[in-house]
């Protein structure tokens, strides 16, 4: 296994930091491989310390890699300050997006001679390209999502509630070995399918409804994210037309998902198909986003997004058209960028399924 803390340490010199506090749960767990819910990392150019309380010391001793595990006896921030004082660190970085104003004020008050330097994206940048271990976890999460979609199809019928379908899907996740959903499951039927984030409600499915299923699970700390749209009964001519446009749009975006292209190129390709069909105003969100330890990560796949796609990045491609008061359609795949192009992590059909 890669020592991820060791990959961070050279960056401290580049940022002219004596030490760096990792407070974010996702970043802490990524670097140390600790799966518990409490703790913090202090990393210097040559050493690293992992602090956690007595509930997790045995677990941390078994899981943490690349850092010395210390038992937290006082407040976590106080313990971090004591370490900084003991080692004479003067320039200390912290995660600007994960430390509150009150916590920052406390640090400055208790160690006023130190320079407290806010950083952004230091660990997140390391997380962009997924290593082989991460890729395997994401493939497993995607396989569970695929099986979940096939599992739920027989349950779809007029009269069933959206939240009942969502509950069955989430229960199935766990039976397949997932830790749970990676976000609140979206099951949006009929007029509600035009709500891009229409999480499952008590609405009952009706004949003729389009149903948008947007769902994913977490497996070994990594997420899947998938969307499929089905129709209850025979689709109308308009439903078939809109579905076909979104299907072509998604294919166009996927064709741009390869090394050297910008994330914005994926968006432009998908968005162009929908715009030329006359539905530009009915596609208001970005075409995708990065996925990994969090279900929404960098890079963003939106208009003019400048990030260059590189092997190891995992992104979604998920265009949609939403007709207010009528119905919506979205199709989403999760792909890994490879040297040759991309690997689509899903196998579920993207043809319009009538149930």
Total strands: the figure is 20
Structural class: alpha+beta
Strand order of the largest sheet: 4-3-2-1-5-6
CA radius of gyration is 23 Å
List SSEs in N-to-C order.
HEHEEHEHEHEHHHEEEEEEHHEEEEEEEE
Distance between the termini: 45 Å
- Strand fraction: 15-25%
Question: CATH topology of the largest domain, what is it called?
Answer: Creatine Amidinohydrolase
CATH class of the largest domain: Alpha Beta
How would you sum up this structure, described in words?
This protein is α+β, with helices and mostly antiparallel strands. The chain has two domains: 4-126, Creatine Amidinohydrolase, Chain A, domain 1, CATH 3.40.350; 132-354, Creatine Amidinohydrolase (Alpha-Beta Complex). The protein is built from ten helices and 20 strands. It has helices at residues 4-14, 25-32, 57-63, 76-86, 101-110, 122-127, 132-152, 162-175, 237-255, 263-276, and strands at residues 19-22, 40-44, 48-52, 68-71, 91-95, 115-119, 180-181, 186-189, 210-215, 217-219, 222-223, 226-231, 288-290, 297-301, 314-317, 320-323, 327-330, 333-337, 342-344, 353-354. Strands 4-3-2-1-5-6 form a six-stranded mixed β-sheet, with helices on both faces. The chain has a four-stranded mixed β-sheet with strand order 8-9-12-20, with helices on one face. Strands 7-10-11 form a three-stranded antiparallel β-sheet. The radius of gyration is 23 Å and the shape is elongated. It starts with a helix and ends with a strand.
